[in-house]
Design brief:
Blueprint lengths: L11 H6 L20 H7 L4 H5 L2 H15 L4 E2 L6 H5 L4 E4 L3 E4 L6 H4 L11 H14 L4 E6 L1 H10 L7 H9 L1 H25 L3 E6 L7 H17 L7 E5 L6 H5 L5 E3 L6 H7 L4 E6 L8 H14 L6 E5 L9 H15 L2
Parallel strand pairs: 1-4, 4-5, 5-6, 6-7, 7-8, 8-9
Antiparallel strand pairs: 2-3
Helix pairs in contact: 2-4, 4-7, 7-10, 8-10, 9-10, 10-11, 14-15
The chain binds coproporphyrinogen III.
Coproporphyrinogen III (CP3) binds next to strand 3 and strand 4.
Length: about 350
């Protein structure tokens, strides 16, 4: 049942994304759903990650769990960056404790052709899960997401998680045409994955380029920026776009050239410095996820410090500076949400 009144025009999160003044500083956490929540472990028991991601009722339940528990200002769709890759038939598994593992890594011209376009028919469970969520979320907006071409390509080329991304960088330099072939096909897949989520009802998107910080600015501009820009272009006219990377202090300005309205800032760059460098961008971040393990007084002091540092920014969405760590105490995250809301209510 569609309900006009459920359109979250007064959402602090959407107001902040647009650079308007929200009724309070909105807060959500990257990886807010997942292993830190006992109800997540219970819901996931006996199901692989990719099975869970293709079961609409389970996706909706897991997406809702942190919204119920914390009262965050946005939900993030429960899925994974490799879901669209698996959906086009690539043999990829998510190995617990390791991450995505690709059976036959991508390294040749012939491999480029294995990356066909994503079609909405490949992921009917995404559309169905978002349909369920939009009804259940009411005024709380849903953030759709995708992995950016570089971060996805690194998994595909390395065959799994990598510290140095050596094979990926070697391919860029030795065979730029193969690199650009893989990255441009991934950009089309990511762009379509985002578009499908928006079409189904997601009201913002985040592009995760978690490993982009491994590149120099020159290589980022030459090998990655055009592809991330293409991935984000498809939803440019419809919803606000957040772009996030880890260890990307040297890439902040370059990453804004993708056109994203909101810049996700990791915990290594103070928000006041980011605000000076990106005066036209709304900032998202950036409490160090490890600080959640500190005692309450220290945690609240750090939360206040993030709010203070964000004061010069065009707008601020409170978040961690990377994902929630699996052993985090949910009670501590709730403390942060309440503090942000109390300290910023207008
Ligand atoms: O709440 C949310 O933020 C939404 C869900 C979400 C997941 N993965 C669920 C997940 C999001 C946004 C992601 C993105 C993702 N996946 C990224 C980019 C964000 C980042 O953290 O930098 C990356 C690099 C991946 C790849 C990936 N998938 C990794 C490294 C892992 C962890 C493997 C492990 O067990 O340590 C996954 C699996 C994964 N994705 C889990 C969850 C909840 C854990 C699986 C489980 O609970 O069994």
């Amino acid at each position: 049942m569609s309900n006009e009144a459920a359109v979250p025009t007064a959402s602090p999160f959407l107001a902040a994304c647009r650079g308007a003044t929200p009724s309070r500083t909105p807060v959500w956490f990257m990886r807010q759903a997942g292993r830190s929540l006992p109800e997540y472990k219970e819901a996931r028991a006996g199901t692989t990650m990719l099975e869970a991601c293709s079961t609409p009722e389970l996706v909706a339940e897991i997406t809702m769990q942190p919204v119920r528990r914390y009262g965050v200002d946005a939900a993030i769709f429960f899925s994974d960056i490799v879901v669209p890759i698996a959906a086009i038939g690539v043999d990829v598994q998510i190995v617990p404790g390791t991450g995505p593992v690709v059976a036959e890594p991508f390294r040749t011209e012939a491999d480029v052709k294995r990356l066909r376009n994503l079609d909405p028919c490949d992921v009917p469970y995404i559309t169905e899960a978002i349909g369920l969520l939009v009804k259940e979320l009411g005024d709380t907006p849903l953030i759709g997401f995708a992995g950016a071409p570089f971060t996805l390509a690194s998994y595909l080329i390395e065959g799994g998680p990598s510290r140095d991304h050596a094979k990926t960088k070697a391919l860029m330099k030795s065979h730029p045409e193969i690199w650009h072939g893989i990255a441009s096909r991934l950009a089309a897949i990511c762009g379509e994955f985002l578009r499908i989520q928006v079409e189904a009802g997601a009201q913002a998107v985040q592009l995760f380029d978690s490993w982009a910080g491994a590149l120099s600015e020159a290589d980022y501009r030459r090998f990655v920026l055009p592809h991330s820009t293409a991935a984000l272009a498809g939803v440019a006219q419809s919803v606000p776009r957040i772009h996030f990377g880890v260890g990307t202090g040297h890439l902040l300005e370059a990453m804004t050239e993708t056109g994203a309205e909101v810049s996700g800032i990791d915990f290594r760059i103070p928000l006041d410095q980011a605000a000076k460098r990106l005066p036209d961008k709304v900032l998202q971040g950036n409490l160090d996820p490890a600080v959640v393990f500190a005692d309450d007084a220290a945690l609240l002091a750090e939360t206040d410090a993030v709010l203070e540092a964000a004061k010069g920014a065009k707008g601020h969405i409170f978040n961690l500076g990377h994902g929630v760590l699996p052993d985090s105490d949910p009670g501590k995250l709730k403390l942060v949400v309440d503090r942000v809301h109390e300290a910023t209510a207008r």
